[in-house]
């Protein structure tokens, strides 16, 4: 991106971004069920449909996309509209981002949560997925995300 350039994304939930080897920026837009891809000079190149993308990761060797979905509650919407089963969807690279596979994530409840992270080890063969659940977040005004464990555990 050009120094000082900003992407303008309309969303009321935290956005996560990743970059590929060509400098394209992939922005997960959870509220709008899409990933938006921008050029290094911040021009919108492509919109990729995705169900509740909490995070997108670009495989550094192949350019394939890994889209992680899980519950991301926020105070602007009814929580039932925002829940997504914790899954990872493997898509092809920018040129042809068609679904290759979709698998449930091995986590309880709605997933790592709004402050969790997912990583893809692009250098392992086969690629390895790492999940990290952060500690719950409580804002100074007392609002905190809540999760319901539907697994009974």
Describe the structure.
Helix content is 3%, strand content 34%. By secondary structure, the chain is mainly beta. It is globular.
Distance, first to last CA? 45 Å
Helix run count: 1
Q: Kindly report the average pLDDT value.
A: 79
How are helices and strands ordered from N to C?
EEEEEEHEEEE
Rg calc: 16 Å
User: Could you tell me the number of beta strands?
Assistant: 10
What oligomeric state is this?
single chain
Structural class: mainly beta
Q: Report the biggest beta sheet as strand number plus sense, adding barrel if it closes.
A: 4 strands, antiparallel
Shape: globular
Helix-residue proportion: under 10%
- Proportion of residues in β-strands: 25-35%
For the largest sheet, list the strands in their spatial order. Answer: 1-2-3-4
């Amino acid at each position: 991106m050009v120094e000082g350039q900003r992407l303008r994304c309309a969303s009321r939930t935290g956005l996560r971004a990743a970059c590929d080897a060509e400098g394209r920026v992939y922005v997960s837009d959870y509220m709008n069920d899409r990933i938006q891809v921008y050029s290094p000079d911040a021009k919108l190149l492509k919109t990729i449909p995705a169900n509740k993308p909490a995070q997108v990761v670009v495989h550094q060797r192949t350019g394939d996309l890994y889209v992680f979905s899980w519950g991301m509650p926020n105070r602007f919407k009814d929580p039932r509209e925002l829940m997504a089963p914790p899954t990872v969807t493997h898509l092809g690279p920018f040129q042809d981002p068609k679904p290759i596979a979709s698998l449930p994530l091995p986590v309880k409840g709605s997933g790592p949560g709004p402050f969790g992270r997912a990583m893809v080890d692009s250098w392992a063969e086969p690629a390895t997925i790492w999940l990290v659940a952060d500690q719950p977040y409580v804002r100074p005004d007392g609002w905190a995300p809540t999760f319901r464990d539907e697994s009974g555990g």
